[in-house]
């Protein structure tokens, strides 16, 4: 799905600059090559359906120490059982978006908006790698892509 293509200033960058969002990780490309990436598997960046994203490390360390949590379980809290899974016991973004759009649960709206906000911040920070010139071109999750098209473009319009 392409969005923002009605902006003539962006069309010239379509073949050169793009941003691929994989597992909610913005990955900027220039001339077909990845030019930057975060270390999402170890907790950097925005939270996602199964990842916690960046955490306040001192508080997290105190939490795992005080609760006598082992390394493997702590890693699972960061990657595998973090993010939406920690909030809702599911990683099914489409189902959560369905509830979000029906206004069934205020917590879903709050958490999904927070995730989109964090992804938007990551999109803006990755703009540095491509001199502020990129275009979101693809995302592996259609429901997320549609939502980000509405949410992130408004927040990051100075980039797009």
Automatic annotation (TrEMBL):
Keywords: ATP-binding, Kinase, Nucleotide-binding, Transferase. GO terms for molecular function: acetate kinase activity; ATP binding. One of its GO terms (biological process) is acetate metabolic process. Gene3D superfamilies: 3.30.420.40. This is Uncharacterized protein.
């Amino acid at each position: 799905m392409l969005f923002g293509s009605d902006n003539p200033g962006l069309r010239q960058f379509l073949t050169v600059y793009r941003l691929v969002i994989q597992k909610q990780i913005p990955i900027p490309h220039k001339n077909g090559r990845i030019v930057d990436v975060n270390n999402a598997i170890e907790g950097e960046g925005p939270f996602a359906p199964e990842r916690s994203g960046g955490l306040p490390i001192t508080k997290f360390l105190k939490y795992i120490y005080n609760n006598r949590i082992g390394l493997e379980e702590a890693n699972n809290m960061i990657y595998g059982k973090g993010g939406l899974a920690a909030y809702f016991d599911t990683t099914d973004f489409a189902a959560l978006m369905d509830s979000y759009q029906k206004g069934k649960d205020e917590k879903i709206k709050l958490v999904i908006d927070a995730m989109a906000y964090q992804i938007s911040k990551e999109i803006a920070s990755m703009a540095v790698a491509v001199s502020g010139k990129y275009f979101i071109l693809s995302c592996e999750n259609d429901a997320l892509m549609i939502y980000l098209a509405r949410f992130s473009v408004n927040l990051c319009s100075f980039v797009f």
